[in-house]
Amino acid sequence: MTIAALLASFPSPDRGVWHLGPLPVRAYALCIIVGIVVSVWWSERRFVARGGAPGTMMDIAVFAVPFGLVGGRVYHVLTDWQKYFGDGGHPADAFKIWQGGLGIWGAVALGALGAWIGARRKGVPLTVVADAAAPGIVVAQAIGRLGNWFNQELYGGPTSLPWGLEIFRRIDPVTGEQDTLTGIADGGPALAVVHPTFLYEMLWNVAVAALLVWADRRYRMGHGRVFALYLAGYTAGRFWIEMLRTDPATMVFGVRINVITSVVVFLAAVVYLVLVRGPRDVLAPAGSTPAERTGTEATDGTGTEDTKDTGDTKDTGDTKDTGDTRDTRDTGKTRTEDANTEVAEAGTDAGREAGTGAGREAGAGADARRSQTS
User: Fold this and answer.
1) How far apart are CA 84 and CA 64, in angstroms?
2) Which stretch of DSSP H or E encloses residue 70?
């Protein structure tokens, strides 16, 4: 390939599957796995930074990841049912997830259900989990898009732009028949040079992740607002990228269904961002009460913490369980007793000197009060 041709476009991989003996190694599956690992690792770090216990996000991922994979596949099959249940389709292929086909909306919806189950079991708010996971999720999507490159799928129409993607004919080396997913490029010229919409989305997702990190640090967002910003940012890009794609899709009112879904999710996310306010959630240490585990940061209105974890306002000896307070109460009691005793003694002496019955009664009363105060 000449330098001019290389600068005019970039090629697709010649294959998406390699074989280690009888074991197929699929690039698409590897990209999904790497994306999940990166997402869980980053989500764990962000969760711990928010005060969460280490290992919590790992435990929640045990529920969220399988639910998300199932949800993504179900959404794909439902929105592209013709491939599996239409004329010439094979219903059993609906279970062949390794051939590609995961709908992000199903993955998010059912993955959120799995996350809710895990968060409930761990006793942490789902909004805290969602905010911690949001950047990692969109980065996982970006990594997963590399799998579309290896599968030679999800591209747009013809283009003469320098970053155009070359599409090649792939064949099964055994049968010689065309096999787009598991075949090998036949070495012939490119069939077309098209918009690499998978690349557009991958770069867009990385930019959204950077936006989430910046906004979260700048405004200390909480209550699920980081996750809502992720939804709004991702759908804003998915809307125009989806319009460029030319692969078959279910149409609703003459528009690709994912375009409509993007609009609906974007509007819902923006409404959530506008209506939901408040400082970032704070997770109390392990062993705290349920009320403490659902507390929020105190802020000074500028997005910076004001009274969190300071020694001046927590567990000080000046205002809690001090001996000075007990000494003051004891001193007051002693002074009262001394005064009563002095009055009683004075009454006794006066009564005895006068020798009157009134004096004797005063003395008797004084003796009684002395016995009560002793």
Assistant:
1) 26
2) helix 56-79
SS3 call for 170: strand
Query: How far is Cα 196 from Cα 149, in angstroms, rounded to an integer?
Result: 8
Joined together, the tokens standing for residue 251 give 């149409």
Nearest CA-CA partner of 133 in 245, 49, 76: 49
Q: Spell out the residues 6+ positions from residue 124 whose beta carbon is closer than 8 angstroms to its own.
A: 52, 56, 283, 293
Number of C-beta neighbours around residue 199 at 10 A: 20
Q: How many CB atoms lie within 10 A of CB 116?
A: 17
For residue range 46-64, what is the model confidence (pLDDT) as tens digits?
Answer: 999 999 999 999 999 999 9
CA angle 40, 308, 210 (to 5 degrees): 35
Per the CB < 8 A criterion, the answer to whether 314 and 284 are in contact is no
Cα separation of 255 and 348, whole Å? 107
Task: For residue 137, give the nearest of 218, 42, 58 by alpha carbon.
Answer: 42
pTM score of the predicted model: 0.74
Contact predicate 230/221, CB 8 Å: no
Which residues does residue 15 pair with via DSSP β-bridges, in sequence order? 184
Which tokens sit at 270? 């923006």
DSSP string, 323-367: HHHHHHHHHHHHHHHHHHHHHHHHHHHHHHHHT-HHHHHHHHHHH
Q: Is 296 helix (H, G, I), strand (E, B) or coil?
A: strand
Amino acid letter for position 157: G
Alpha helices, H only, 220-289: 225-244, 257-275
Secondary structure percentages of the chain, helix, strand, coil, to 5: 60, 10, 30
For residue 355 the two structure tokens come to 């020798």
How does pLDDT run across 283-338, given as a tens digit for each residue?
866 555 555 544 555 333 333 444 444 444 444 444 444 444 444 444 444 444 44
DSSP 8-state symbol, 279: P
